[in-house]
Each structure stands twice: as C-alpha cells, then as structure tokens.
Amino acid sequence: MPESLEFTLPGHTSELYLLLNADYTVSVLNEDKGAPTGEIGTWTNVYDQSVVVNLPNRGATYTANFRYSLKPEIQASQYDGLKCGSYEAFTSHCDETMVGIKFNSDKMIQCWVGY
Hints:
Structural class: mainly beta
Oligomer: single chain
Order of helices and strands: EEEEEEEE
Shape: elongated
Number of helices: 0
C-alpha cells in the first residue's frame, strides 16, 4: 500500500462554508453547519462528474470534479485499458470533490478544496 501524501496549497488560505440547496441556490454560512449569512449564489452539476458554484457578490466561480477512486480489485496491469466509460472500475464519492479551480472577476485563478 503506498504511503499517504500530504497536499498543501501555497499562499493565503481561508475557509468558506456553503450549503447547496435543493433549489440550486447556495447559502454562505457563518461557520461549518452554521447559520446563513444572507449571501447567496447558485450551483449546478455538470453531468454526474463535477459541480460549479457561482457567488456573484464575491465575483467568484468555483468548479471541481467529484472525487472517485479505483476499486481495490483493479490491478496495475489493467490501467492501460481504463477509459472514461470504465464506470465498473471506479467508486464515486459524490459527497466530496477533488481540488478545484476558483475563478475571480479580476481574472485571478486559485485552487480550492471542497469536502
């Protein structure tokens, strides 16, 4: 089993707590599982593969793929045969995202991590 690697992002970091609502609005929260601050945005899925969050008051759009992992029974010798449609080889974790990209209205691009 490979050893665990720690991933860090350089520069300033901050925390932003979001609640994605069933009506495709986003509520910014004051803390993890906290109360809404009144700031709202929108969200949408891109197929079953990623999520896009738009917060117009911040001039920011966040996008990230949902997390997925290879099933334990997939051997290294099978890697070359994997394709985008090899759904049976992967486990989806749709309640988590991979590292994503944040686009600002001032054309700054940053990384972000969602959970």
